Amino acid sequence: MPFSELTTELTERTAAGLLRRRRLLESPQGTHVRVDGREVLSFCSNDYLGLANHPALISAAKEAADSAGVGGGASHLITGHHHLHQKLEEALAKSVGLPCALLFSTGYMANIGVVTALVGRSDTVFADKLNHASLNDAAVLSRAELKRYPHNDMAALEQLLKTAKSGRKLVLADAVFSMDGDVAPVKELLALCETYDAWLMLDDAHGFGVLGNGRGILAEHGVCSPRIIYMATLGKAAGVAGAFVAGETMLIENLIQNARSYVYTTAAPPMLAAALLASLNVIEEEDWRREQLQRLIRTLRDGLQSCRWQLVASQTPIQPVIIGDNKEAIDVSEHLLERGLLVPAIRPPTVPKGTARLRISLSASHTTDEVQQLVDAIRKLADR
Ligand SMILES: *Cc1c(COP(=O)(O)O)cnc(C)c1O
Predict the structure, then answer these.
(1) Is 238 in contact with 283 (CB distance < 8 Å)?
(2) Buried b or exposed e, range 224-263, using 16+ CB within 10 angstroms
(3) What angle do CA 151, 155, 157 make, to 5 degrees?
(4) CA–CA separation, 322 and 319 (whole Å)
(5) Ligand 1: nearest atom to the Cα of 206
(6) What number does the ligand 1 atom closest to the CA of 131 have?
(7) 178 is known as an active-site residue
(8) Could you say which of 82, 132, 206, 366 is catalytic?
(9) Is 187 labeled as catalytic in the residue annotation?
């Protein structure tokens, strides 16, 4: 039987209650969605600014579909590099305050492409233990030596940098950690990279659009350096799809030559670039969306202050509530769903053992009343 081993694996997963399944979404992404046949109030999308279904982005995409078609048609290096892509790259570089930017089809591909283009067998990658899976995969694929340091532990990172072999050094860190919502100590990371002559790659998937007036982690911390390789995704706060890498012109030129997930893939449809240009306008002009997020974060944190399940110290729209036990986390998530509130339970191995959690994501489209409703429901379950 060619698949018997795979069948066994699935059976075991099911028995352990770890089988992953996909919910069926039957509405646009947003806070009020239809999922598996029912209307729910959702706290689990990365659409932090509420742009995934924004009319300005939709009409920009429609107009571009009329003028530029729906298909990318070829890779960027053949004939796929549309003037809308070019315009978007220029706007993105300007937005994050770096000389040059390069679009990728997804954040996963951007991370794979950058790391494998820049380091190889004789080099070393230093990575935070809570980094996103795509950065870990990228490091492994690059064949560089991989040294992981405890989460945000700068002393441990320094020790590793000090004793590194010769060759290139690349430090990889999420700017906002996707399961905890906390932020990397960017200034300290940069200072270490300067001392030990390393590059610093920051994955700002959850910061771009949200932090630094929408310009991301670098603006938030007021840092800039030619050592920085900045990556952000465009399917989260920006509301569409894709990712970009920004940095020195020489870096970007090099990636165009060597990043295999850039070279050997079809360009994303230009209509997505048009939608993203419209998204950038909203990100730049509508501060109220970030202000609303701050209000919601305050409502949630104030509301859950004395709850027996504690929030992680996060000031971003990612607000995990640590439950601890796997089964209890699932149980709480299921009870919330009975009340029409969709909040995912995240369990190991995605998060460390004993830290199963509800991962609440807030969006500027939520109202304070809706967040209060969630607070009341969680408190009631905690007091059972
Ligand atoms: C979502 C995410 C990615 C992957 O981005 P996609 O565009 O979804 O492929 C990379 N890094 C981090 C930290 C993420 O949260």
Answers:
(1) yes
(2) eeebbbbbbbbbbbbbbbbbbbbbbeebbebbeeebebbb
(3) 60
(4) 10
(5) 15
(6) 13
(7) yes
(8) 206
(9) no
| Residue whose CA lies nearest to ligand 1 atom number 10 | 107
Q: In what order do the strands lie in the sheet with 32-35?
A: 32-35, 38-42, 341-342
Distance from the alpha carbon of residue 275 to the mean position of ligand 1, in angstroms: 19
pTM (2 d.p.): 0.97
Each residue's pLDDT, cut to its tens digit, for the chain (384 residues) gives 688 999 999 999 888 878 888 999 999 999 999 999 999 999 999 999 999 999 999 999 999 999 999 999 999 999 999 999 999 999 999 999 999 999 999 999 999 999 999 999 999 999 999 999 999 999 999 999 999 999 999 999 999 999 999 999 999 999 999 999 999 999 999 999 999 999 999 999 999 999 999 999 999 999 999 999 999 999 999 999 999 999 999 999 999 999 999 999 999 999 999 999 999 999 999 999 999 999 999 999 999 999 999 999 999 999 999 999 999 999 999 999 999 999 999 998 889 899 999 999 999 999 999 999 999 999 999 998
Give the distance from CA 220 to its chain's centroid. Answer: 17
Ligand 1 atom 2 nearest Cα: 205
* 285 Cα: distance to centroid of ligand 1 (angstroms): 25
The β-bridge partners of 100 are: 247
- Nearest residue (CA) to ligand 1, atom 5: 107
Residue 7 Cα to ligand 1 middle (Å): 30
- Considering only CA atoms, which of 326, 345, 240, 342 is closest in space to residue 24? 342
Q: Which of 42, 178, 279, 361 is catalytic?
A: 178
CA-243 nearest atom, ligand 1 = 7
Evaluate whether 262 touches 256 at the Cβ level (below 8 Å): yes
- Name all residues whose Cβ lies below 6 A of ligand 1: 106-108, 111, 132, 134, 174, 178, 203, 205-206, 233, 235, 243
Active-site annotation holder among 132, 236, 314, 365: 236
